Amino acid sequence: MPRPPVQILLVPYDSGHRGVRMGEGPDHLLRQGAVSALRASGLDVVTQYVETVRDFRTEIATHFELCAQVAARVAEAVTEGRRPVVLSGNCGIALGTLAGLHAGGVADVGIVWLDAHGEFNTPDTTTSGFLDGMGVATITGRCWRAVAHGVSGFAPVRDEHVLLAGVRELDDAEGGLLATSGIRIVRAEMVRDDGVTAALGPALDALARRVQRVYLHVDLDVLDPLVGRANPFAPAGGLTRGELIDAVRLVRERFEIAGAGVASYEPSLDGDGAVFTAAVAVLDALTESR
Fold this sequence. Notes:
The chain has 290 residues and is of the alpha/beta class. It has one domain: Ureohydrolase domain (Arginase, Chain A). Helices cover 38% and strands 18% of the residues. The chain contains eleven helices and ten strands. The strands form two sheets. The protein has an eight-stranded parallel sheet, sandwiched between helices. It has a two-stranded antiparallel sheet with strand order 2-3. Helix 2 crosses helix 11 and helix 8 packs across helix 9. The longest helix is centred in the N-terminal third of the chain and has 21 residues, at 59-79.
């Protein structure tokens, strides 16, 4: 089966600021040849930047403005027959991708979210105040409802349609919220102890009984820092590069990947380029033919 053409959207922002910290990641991936490698493999790829038009940036307003722009461009990509892949500084931009898929007519999309963290805090539980720690909570309709619904196409995703994998660090209140949710979690230690297929396979099979297509999200801090440090928030005990790629391929074997995101890469911490290499491998794996 031929690989579908891809639309890569670059959103080089972290907490509303362009090109700093994890906001450097998308630019770095492009400059260092991640997209060129896909083209060299014969894949039809076009790229487009998403930029804020705000003169005065505030984190929350800028974030949801970027989500709205991503949603519009994802919807365009879908109507043109392209698979959207978003390279972003922050994970929460995934809300825009999901909204754009919905606006483009792609219904019943589940989520497979590979991340060291649960991203399930709310403004009432967070102790850091970090908006990006609330991404999955927002996507499932638990917080920021008014601004989220201002993103065209957005509708909260049902808990039962969400799978978190590679998780190994949760705040206490965040963990309590997750425990009362319908979201399934495959912790990183399960992958290390049992292997990718044994740990992740049953959870993916359960999700496949509910949805046929997914949004696949990869926060690069799902990798163990001994492999490479993706960002300052990456705790010990993560996945190897091989485990991450195997997980992506396992998802691709079971689902149509309607869209994808790769996020949270701070190049200045990636001294030997190991995380960059892993990111390129992720992009290659998620765009392979089924």
